[in-house]
Design a protein that fits this description.
Elements (H helix, E strand, L loop, with lengths): L1 E9 L5 E10 L4 E5 L6 H8 L7 E6 L2 E2 L8 H6 L1 E4 L11 H5 L1 H6 L3 H14 L15 H13 L5 E5 L7 H13 L6 E6 L2 H5 L4 E6 L2 E5 L11
Parallel strand pairs: 3-8, 3-9, 6-7, 7-8
Antiparallel strand pairs: 1-2, 1-4, 4-5, 9-10
Helix pairs in contact: 5-6, 6-7
């Protein structure tokens, strides 16, 4: 699903956020990307979603080489990916139901099909009773549950989560992490950035560890160049 080979990201100020990083995340796999602040986690995820362009190296997502992806193709790629941030980023003037439905609106899915899909997501994240609530009425955990539902309502094959439990208490953070890990049973590939390696270890899933832009640990298979895939 994700193939990264000798990836380097150098910003105009000279800082190298990533240096010669290589690994792959297989289809249907859950991978935790662990590392302290400044390790390169967020930069890596932004490269995978084509929000940034690497200085060197290659990235393939679902067989697409991002190095040759045209500007008008990037929104199409991003629509096939579910994205979750540390902040839920919900629309404050829309209800829970309407927030979840946003990706469907973008894709032109309306009517009964959209309603059924949103109902399924409300049930999945346990927010049925709050479907008419505005984000301000919800707890931080409830808001992040809505954000998760919004990320997968359009049935993406890949979900990218950047420290989704960062603003939650430990119990709430673990709850969201478990929901993300459970997406594996739906055939969704998931990459989750976390600061603490110990959090990742609790779920017995793939762990990739970054430190100051370098990949220092990977308990999965060694990456090969995309041309050899």
């Amino acid at each position: 699903m994700i193939q990264i080979y000798r990836l380097t990201m150098r910003f105009p100020n000279g800082i190298e956020a990533l240096r010669d990083v290589s690994f792959r995340v297989h289809e249907g796999e859950v991978a935790f990307i662990a590392g302290r602040s400044g390790s390169g986690k967020s930069t890596l995820l932004s490269l995978v979603t084509a929000e940034l362009k690497p200085s060197d190296g290659q990235i393939l997502v679902a067989g697409r080489n991002l190095a040759v992806l045209k500007a008008d193709q990037r929104p199409i790629l991003r629509r096939a990916i579910g994205r979750i941030w540390q902040e839920p980023r919900l629309l404050p003037d829309r209800s829970v139901r309407d927030n979840i439905a946003v990706p469907l609106e973008i894709l032109g899915v309306t009517g009964e099909r959209a309603r059924q899909r949103v109902d399924q997501m409300l049930e999945l994240v346990g927010m049925e009773r709050h479907h008419a609530a505005l984000p301000a009425w919800l707890s931080s955990l409830e808001q992040q549950r809505v954000a998760l539902a919004r990320a997968i309502v359009h049935e993406p094959s890949l979900v990218i989560a950047d420290e989704p439990g960062g603003n939650l208490d430990p119990e709430g953070a673990m709850s969201i992490m478990q929901m993300l890990v459970d997406l594996k049973s739906r055939g969704i590939t998931v990459a989750i950035a976390v600061r603490d390696r110990a959090i990742a270890d609790k779920f017995s899933q793939r762990v990739v560890v970054l430190n100051k832009g370098f990949l220092i640990e990977d308990d999965g298979a060694e990456a090969r160049p995309p041309s050899e895939a």
